[in-house]
Each structure stands twice: as C-alpha cells, then as structure tokens.
Amino acid sequence: SDLLLGSLDGKVLKELPVSKKTLAYPIQKQGSATMYEWNVEIEGSKVEEFKKKLSFNPLVLRYLLLKQD
Question: Alpha helices of the chain — where are they, by DSSP H?
Fold first, then answer.
C-alpha cells in the first residue's frame, strides 16, 4: 500500500494485524485470502485515483474504503 499511496502523496498511519481467511465463495478463483487493514491519510481529491489503483491491482481481490472524521 505504501507504493500505491506514495504516488498520491498519501501515507499509512497504522497497519493492523493480518489474518488469513477461507472465503465463503471463490473470488477470482481464490478460495482463501489474506486480510489487511490500514488507516491511511490521503487528500480527498485523490481518493478516486486511489480506488482505481486498487481496482486494477491484481493482488487486491476486494477492498472497502471508509472515511474517518
């Protein structure tokens, strides 16, 4: 994520523990996945570009972005 955020002048504030999960159904022919959770800081105007980078990254099966105030 540092590489994705670095190009957008963002940064990882905190990385929470990693876990491996068996998926309820296959996603992109994968039966299990490693879950990551990061608190990141990025300008609001660059969020859409960050989403595009996540969507086109072959290592990312799914993602969820939440805005924290």
Answer: 2-6, 47-56
